[in-house]
Write a structure and sequence with these properties.
Layout: H1 15-26, E1 33-37, H2 44-56, H3 71-78, E2 84-87, H4 96-106, E3 116-120, H5 128-139, E4 145-151, H6 159-163, E5 166-169, H7 175-184, H8 190-199, H9 204-209, H10 212-228, H11 236-248, H12 251-270
Parallel strand pairs: 1-4, 1-5, 2-3, 3-4
Helix pairs in contact: 4-5, 7-8, 10-12
Length: 271
């Protein structure tokens, strides 16, 4: 059905990256290894998953979209497709044993379709030993296999790993783009969406990770502290020290509070 078609419209912003991936699909020239690089939370994993679904779809309505309704698409949505897997971890690193296990799986023939897709999320977490093991697969890839690597730390990767991939760059979203998405997709009102977008530094993932009510409460407290520091109030140094003690009491929130203060001051200058 048209309403379940899956394409790169799911990836918000990123016109350059989307155009590049669509061009590769349209020309049927998707390489055996892609490196999606850019800041955290800007849509790299969403793009990798979308690309995998299009490649594995059994009934593509066009070269750059998956139908969303075939058996392969349903299995991908449920996370049960035998020819698609993601290597990720909650730990700090991906070890060489994980890479070797993935390599063994890649040597097997595809089970359900003509190709296999393996996604390495945050490939910069792979240890140097693991990267060297991965290099062998990148140099001698199995037939009908696509590896999609994502990273926000491309400088942590071995140059030989990077050189064997086609690179697709993702960038931070603009504040206007972020605010528009938060209003249309997340239902935030315009003022709150603009506040969150200003603090997210171009990352939709970071913007969605915040508790909005808590963020607004902190913003209001920053406004109160700023007002108390007005020279005309006479509070002066006492208010400044009290505010500093309050902010420093919770180190986990300190950076966020200072970011809020910077946004608050910038908005006053603009006004």
């Amino acid at each position: 059905r048209p309403d379940v078609t899956v394409d790169f419209e799911r990836v918000r912003g990123q016109p350059g990256a989307r155009s590049r991936l669509e061009a590769l699909l349209g020309a049927d020239r998707v390489p055996h290894a892609l490196l999606l690089e850019g800041p955290e939370g800007v849509g790299k994993m969403r793009a990798a998953q979308t690309l995998a679904q299009i490649l594995l779809c059994a009934n593509r309505p066009r070269p750059t979209a998956a139908c969303g309704g075939c058996g392969a698409c349903h299995k991908l949505a449920a996370g049960t497709h035998a020819d698609f897997s993601v290597i990720t971890t909650d730990a700090r690193t991906v070890k060489i044993e994980d890479i070797r296990a993935a390599e063994r799986a890649l040597r097997l023939r595809p089970v359900e379709g003509p190709r296999r897709v393996l996604v390495f999320e945050d490939v910069h977490r792979v240890t140097l030993g693991g990267q060297n093991a991965l290099l062998k697969t990148l140099e001698e890839p199995p037939r009908d296999t696509h590896l999609v690597l994502t990273t926000s730390r491309v400088r942590w990767l071995l140059p030989t790993v990077v050189s064997r991939c086609q690179r697709v760059a993702f960038g931070p979203l603009s504040e206007a783009e972020l605010a528009a998405v938060l209003q249309s997709d997340d239902g935030l009102d315009a003022g709150v969406a603009q506040l969150v977008a200003a603090l997210a530094h171009g990352s939709l993932g970071r913007a969605r990770a915040w508790d909005v009510e808590t963020l607004v409460a902190r913003r209001d407290r920053v406004a109160e502290l700023d007002a108390a520091l007005e020279p005309t109030t006479g509070a002066g140094l006492t208010a400044a020290l009290r505010g500093a003690q309050e902010l420093a009491a919770d180190r986990a929130e300190l950076t966020e509070s200072l970011d809020l203060w910077l946004v608050w001051l910038r908005d006053q200058l603009v006004t």
